[in-house]
Specification:
Blueprint lengths: L1 E14 L2 E15 L4 E5 L6 H8 L7 E6 L2 E2 L5 H9 L1 E4 L11 H11 L4 H14 L15 H13 L5 E5 L7 H18 L2 E6 L2 H7 L2 E6 L2 E7 H6 L4 H9 L6
Parallel strand pairs: 3-8, 3-9, 6-7, 7-8
Antiparallel strand pairs: 1-2, 1-4, 4-5, 9-10
Helix pairs in contact: 3-4, 3-5, 4-5, 5-6
Length: 253
């Protein structure tokens, strides 16, 4: 279970010699139950990516608490933080693969860092490549793969440390519709077969509707509504949700 309690995030910057504060997250609270596919949706600049990065502490909240499985992890550092992140996989919009490493070496990388023996990490990587349908690509390099294949490698890498949570930050926004559907179906399988809790950041209501059982809508750093995906889309309460539905042709309402 993931609980965010009253999370704020403020970035400081200097402009024309003056000190300014940019409040990106403002008193954000929500709970993600084990086994959820939980969507965080909103327009560009709403604070989605900063919010998801607070879960694995890539961004440290300015105030508030991050609680994972009942433990307050907000102030974790050093070995505690490394251990926490082993249990939280992350998939990015632009794949973030190592260009000079083969597909197999990309997937084994987190296990290599963790000091796992070569035979064990390669066996684990091959099992995951089979799961994502890329067993025959292990010797290729990212530049030899399509965008969808690269994202499947990234998903396999995110699963290498057997995480209980996976964070997906706009994981399909660089992909065409058909490839997006393939990736979403793969993530649904991972959620169902491996029991991985998924937090999915997206600006697309169609994507959220396809994969998420529950969603939270963020606008200007604040959660403006949350609930079961179907309920939120069928009876939107917040102005921004209605606007997003209008932009997508009310097809989801």
């Amino acid at each position: 279970m993931i609980q965010l309690e009253h999370i704020t995030k403020t970035f400081d910057h200097v402009e024309h010699g003056e000190h300014h504060e940019h409040h990106v997250l403002k008193d954000v609270s929500f709970t993600v139950e084990d086994g959820d596919t939980f969507g965080i949706i909103g327009e560009s600049g709403a604070g989605k990516s900063t919010l998801v990065r607070c879960i694995n502490l890539l961004e440290k909240p300015t105030s508030g608490k991050v609680i994972i499985n009942g433990t307050d992890v907000t102030n974790y550092s050093g070995k505690q933080l490394v251990q926490l992140r082993r249990g939280i996989g992350m998939v990015f919009q632009n794949f973030n693969l190592f260009a000079q490493r083969s597909v197999l070496q990309n997937v084994t990388y987190p296990l290599e860092v963790a000091g796992e023996a070569k035979d064990a990490r390669e066996a684990r990587a091959r099992k995951l490549l089979s799961m994502v349908g890329l067993s025959d690509k292990e010797k290729l390099y990212p530049s030899q793969l399509s965008g969808g294949q690269q994202q499947r490698v990234a998903i396999a890498r995110a699963l290498s440390t057997a995480p209980s949570i996976m964070l997906c930050d706009e994981a399909t926004s660089a992909l065409d519709t058909m490839t997006t559907n393939t990736i979403l179906n793969l993530l649904k399988r991972i959620n169902k077969e491996l029991g991985v809790t998924i937090v999915f950041i997206t600006h697309s209501l169609a994507v959220a509707n396809s994969i998420c059982n529950r969603i939270a809508v963020i606008d200007d750093g604040k959660i403006v509504e949350q609930g079961k995906t179907h309920d939120v889309f069928a009876h939107p309460q917040a102005k921004v949700t209605r606007e997003l539905l209008d932009m997508e042709g009310k097809a989801l309402a």
